[in-house]
Specification:
Elements lengths: L4 E5 L3 H12 L5 E5 L15 H5 L10 H6 L2 E4 L4 E4 L6 E3 L4 E2 L3 E4 L3 E3 L10 E3 L3 H10 L5 E5 L3 H12 L3 E5 L7 H4 L1 H13 L3 E3 L4 E7 L2 E6 L2 E5 L1 E4 L3 E3 L2 H6 L7 E3 L10 E3 L4 E5 L4 E4 L3 H15 L11 E6 L2 E7 L6 E5 L7 E7 L2 E8 L2 H13 L5 H5 L6 H5 L2
Parallel strand pairs: 1-2, 1-7, 2-3, 7-19, 9-16, 10-11, 10-16, 11-12, 18-20
Antiparallel strand pairs: 4-5, 5-6, 8-17, 13-14, 14-15, 20-21, 22-23, 23-26, 24-25, 25-26
Helix pairs in contact: 1-9
């Protein structure tokens, strides 16, 4: 491949990893990053944890100025791309500038799903560094923080708010949080973590309206009003696929890509939260919104952009720190999968394995990273596993790996 210029649309984790991968792989021609945020690329996971609680920026930024200068990367912040030309691959910017490109990577990420008809500076979403800074202004000892949504972001915000001494109420529409992803018994265990940490967790609660009245926010729900000083809405994200749509690229819950991260337009790739990829290991399409996925998928896309054929078949892994506990998940489970618990859910550390057709599809663990490491290998190996051995907390899971 003899690309003279690669344009990366998006200024987040995936764009930074793709850029570093390209340079490590010896690609020495032009790289232009176009990001609509004013900030240089930075990590998002700390926004709901270390950066929210302590404004800690150490290690936050991914492409420092000295690095981009030394590696001849043209980083354009505060700039929005609007369209990719099907004729020659050039990228049109909002100000009318055309950037020539032989390869384009869509790494535009996602945006928070928003509640309709809600306005006010105390009704907040958490996606950017600026969002975290605004939220920190309101989260202090004694503050009444309302979190809408008990998913992983909502739970992390609730945890950080409790660390900062706030009173926290979490409103969740489902009877059990995360049941669709983790199943009922594991979802109930996650709910108990909230309760044990002093969170007022209200399940099966439908939010009807959110109104800011002076310095207070009133959330009207199916079970009554909740009044707080600030509301954080964490009900998922939607993929930023506007550039792809405007360019005629196939989209469906994100940019549709194959196992090589290739989109329907020649020489255009996608990675990270915006990419709805075909996963050859699980034989289905999925759009994954996690840090590790952005890293590994961006690296795979970068390799493919410069002719180093790479299939993206990572089993997917993510972690979450909540209420002093470390939660990890690997794989892709379905609600109908068999759940095997290893250990006692009431103990400090335990694990859950999700089985289908005799093989492990996923695993979840609390303060038990070793089990996740083993599960990751077993998922990739696609072998049948004895459920009784998985559930035997006195056995050595490493023996299963040695038998592969």
């Amino acid at each position: 491949m003899s690309a003279r210029n690669i344009v990366i649309i998006g200024g987040g984790q995936a764009s930074a990893v793709a850029t570093r991968t390209l340079r490590r792989r010896g690609y020495d021609a032009g790289i232009t990053i176009v990001g609509d945020e004013a900030e240089r690329p930075y990590q998002r996971p700390p926004l709901s944890k270390e950066y929210l609680t302590a404004a800690d920026e150490s290690g936050l930024f991914l492409l420092p100025e000295d690095w981009t200068e030394a590696h001849d990367v043209d980083l354009r912040t505060g700039v929005r791309a609007t369209k990719i030309s099907a004729a020659d691959g050039s990228v049109l910017l909002e100000d009318g500038t055309m950037l020539p490109a032989d390869r384009v990577l869509l790494a535009t990420g996602g945006s928070p799903r928003r509640l309709p008809d809600t306005h006010g500076d105390r009704i907040l979403y958490l996606r950017t560094k600026a969002d975290a800074a605004r939220l920190r202004e309101h989260v202090r000892p004694g503050a009444r923080v309302i979190v809408i949504g008990a998913g992983f972001i909502g739970a992390e915000v609730a945890s950080s708010a409790r660390i900062l001494g706030a009173e926290v109420t979490v409103l969740e529409a489902a009877p059990v949080p995360l049941a669709r992803v983790l199943g009922l018994c594991v979802g109930e265990a996650c709910a108990q973590m909230h309760v044990d940490a002093g969170v007022d967790l209200r399940l099966d609660t439908q939010v009807e309206t959110v109104r800011q009245i002076g310095d207070e926010v009133v959330v009207s729900t199916s079970s009554g009003d909740v009044v707080g000083d600030v509301v954080v809405v964490g009900i998922g994200i939607v993929p930023n696929d506007e550039v792809a749509r405007a360019s005629g690229i196939d989209v469906d819950n994100g940019v549709l890509v194959d196992a090589h991260c290739r989109s329907s337009m020649e020489h255009v790739y996608a990675a990270g939260d915006v990419a709805n990829h075909y996963h050859p290991l699980f034989k289905t399409r999925m759009r994954v919104e996690h840090f590790d996925n952005a890293n590994k998928q961006a690296a795979a896309a970068a390799n493919n952009m410069i002719g180093r054929e790479t299939i993206f078949d990572d089993p997917h892994w993510f972690w979450s720190d909540q209420f002093g506990r470390n939660l990890q998940y690997v794989g892709h489970a379905a609600p109908t999968d068999q759940v095997v618990i290893r250990g006692d859910i009431g103990e400090p550390s335990w694990s859950a394995f999700y089985l289908r057709d005799g093989g492990i599809r996923a695993a979840f663990a609390v303060d038990n990273p070793e089990d996740i490491m083993v599960a990751r290998e077993l998922i990739s190996a696609r072998v049948e596993i004895d459920a009784a051995r998985l559930g035997d907390s006195g056995g050595d899971l490493m023996e299963l790996l040695e038998e592969l």
